[in-house]
Each structure stands twice: as C-alpha cells, then as structure tokens.
Amino acid sequence: MAPRFASNAPMQQTQRTRRAARRAFTHRRSWLVALPVVVLALLSLQSLLSGLWLTSSDSATTETLPRTALVLTAHPDDEVMFFAPTILALVGAGVHVFALCLSTGNADGLGSVRHRELVQAYNALGVPEDRVGWLDDRKLQDGMRTVWDPTHVAGRVQRYLDSLGLQIDALITFDSMGVSSHANHIACHQASLLLRDQGTFDAVYALHSPRLATKYLSLPSSLLGTLLSLPLSQRAVAAHVQPPIDKAILPQTIRALSSPSQYRQSLEAMRRHASQLVWFRYVYIVLSQLMYGNLLVLL
Ligand SMILES: [Zn+2]
Fold first, then answer.
1. How many angstroms separate the alpha carbon of residue 74 from the centre of ligand 1?
2. From the CA of 5, how far away is ligand 1's center (Å)?
3. Ligand 1 centroid distance, CA of 186 (Å)
4. Residue 113: beta bridge partners?
5. How far is the CA of 216 from the centre of ligand 1 (A)?
6. Which pTM was predicted?
7. Per residue in 174-211, pLDDT tens?
8. What Gene3D superfamilies does this protein's entry cite (predicted)?
9. Cα 195 to averaged position of ligand 1 atoms, centre (Å)
10. Which residue of 70, 123, 169, 263 lies most exposed, with the fewest beta carbons within 10 A?
C-alpha cells in the first residue's frame, strides 16, 4: 500500500491551483466592475465642471469674457491639438471667435490640402469659414528650424485685422514655451507681446504649456487643475448677458474644460485633418490634457 501522503499530494496541489485561479478570477472581476465606475465618475465630474472659469487679481471686480477673440496659431491642426477646449467653450458662451493661422503647414508639401482641412476643422469647432484666415507667406514657412521674425508676424496680424475691419477684444495664442517648444509657436508668442505693447487688443492671453510630468495624464489632469482652481474662480456667464466690456474687467486667467460631448466634437475636428492622422496623433488625442482643458493667462 502506498503511503497516505504520497496519494494526497497531487490532490492538494490541484486544490491550491483552483483556489489561486478563483482568487485571480475574483480580482479580475473586481477590476471589471471598478473600471466603468471610475470612468463614469470622471465623466460625471467633467460634465459638472465643464465650461469657462475666470479669475481676477482683484476679488472686488467683475470679470467678463471678451466679446470677440482672435486665435493665433502657427500651423493647421494647432487649433485642435492645443486650443480646442478654449474655442469650443468661447463659441458656446457666445463669443465671436476669429482665427488666423500663420502658415499652410507646407513642411511636407501638403499646404494646399492642409489649409482646406484647417477651415473644415474650425467649422467642426463652431467657427464659420468667413472668420478663418490663413497666410502663405514665404517668410513664414512651416519648419522646426525656420525662424520667424516676430515683428513681421505682428505686422501680418495687424494687416489681417485691418482686412476684417473690426476691433477684436482679445488675442489668444501660445506662451513662451509654445507647448512643444516649436520655434514657430514661440514666434506667435513673441509677436503677441509686440501687439500687446502697441495696444492692438484689450487683452492678450497665452496658453499655459503643461509640464511634461502632467502633460499626458489625459482627462484626470485637466479635471484636477480645474478642481484646484475652484476656490479662486467664478464660472463665466454667456457673453450676451454680461455687462458692457468697459464696465467690467477682462479676467486674469481663463480656464476652459470641455464636456464629454465637446471632447467628441474635438475628435470630429481632428478627423478633418486627415492628412495629419498618423498613429502618434491618435495616442495624442486620447492622452494629451490639452484635448480636454486649457488654461489661458493674461500677459
Ligand atoms: Zn504647430
């Protein structure tokens, strides 16, 4: 007769394996339950906080949105990849948004395709074609190493404004980091300082470039930034019910957070840039916090 322990060993081994499998299954099942709950909670918070949040350096003042704003970008697709939450929120609040893109994005010889895509993308963001301008200037060609003269850029912006025949309240463009440190983005910022100094606009706002550590933390990063700013912020009211602009001040910062449906609108706008949809852009539109929210700082 075989020893008792010898015949029980395989059975104990089987029981241990079954217990481990049951634990692994339970663990997986709890994740499967928790994940939709977390996603639902994030989307609910996003819906609740979506819109425009304004801050001022003086708590006794009333902040107001500009009635009109010009979004100044360097290349077709900048408006979706970096400024979509701002554009959607301003359009939603009744601000008349105008756009000027300083190049056709002709780095790969696709300029004629890309400026058409630019107009279509702005359309998807709610900006009509007659408010979208672009330049094809030999001094402002797309390129990481192409240096744009800020004085020339400021002059071209002024000419565009003259062609519109309108006084635009606010300019919105890149900050000194240009989000990606692209030389053409930084030239937009440098030109905006010149335009501010010559009083072309009532206000000039720079898009805050996120730090690398949080740049690709997607929606949670934008939600956290909005939550942390709430004690010092007030929600913007629609442009058409605000006091006249001379009876209120333009805010020190403007924070825009897209709702889930506005984020889908941004994806639709990105689809219009068909010539740019390479694999890393799909990763970008999911992970970049700038696809969900923007912080604009008064210069
Ligand atoms: Zn760009």
1. 5
2. 72
3. 10
4. none
5. 17
6. 0.86
7. 999 999 999 999 999 999 999 999 999 999 999 999 99
8. LmbE-like
9. 20
10. 123
